[in-house]
Here is the input.
Amino acid sequence: MAKLAPSILSADFSKLAEQVALIEQGGAGYVHMDVMDGAFVPNITFGGLVVQSMVGKTKLPFDVHLMIERPELRIHDFATPQTEFITVHQEACPHLHRVIQQIKDLGIKAGVALNPATPVETLDWVLADLDMVLVMSVNPGFGGQKFIPAALDKIRQLAQLRSERGLPFLIEIDGGVSLGNAKGIAAAGTDLLVAGSAVFSASDIPSRVRDFNNIIR
Ligand code: DX5
Ligand code: ZN
Here is the structure.
């Protein structure tokens, strides 16, 4: 059963806790938090203080997506009692194996994200250590971009590898997810669907989350 992880990147930051309460009310699985540093990606969002400030404001587990350079220097800032996943980018980590261990040593599940141009094969030697692989279906940095359909092939490739090797990692997709493409994405083997603008642009956010859930479950 796939789950929805709405991204607060598209939420109204002036009332973040209220916005997160709305996705919880609709039945979201996670709250997806996009951390951007203006270096790895062109945009800047928020850091550890904002993530920490959300602890206790919702019952939803945190799915933290780090789009930052040198994530190994910052991991501990995001390891709150509510953080279930911390995901780093393959492209930002020359010592990826070490960063994965660093996340797991804090008792947090470790994910690695792949940009659209990065092949699945780059994860061959860490796949068995991972709790999640995040497939970017847009180039990271902004919400509201168009879904890149080749991401579906990447999801299928990962789902096949997972079953061939008997591995437990989850598969997540992020970028351009809409009510229109969610069914096909879930059918390809995706466990977690991130959606930002498609959730927070709705006039009735809980009902939009329920619409997604009806499609992907
Ligand atoms: C993009 C972020 C996404 C973003 C998705 O860099 O990682 O999580 O919020 O936004 P939408 O769903 O609008 O494409
Ligand atoms: Zn994200």
About this structure: The chain has a mean pLDDT of 98.
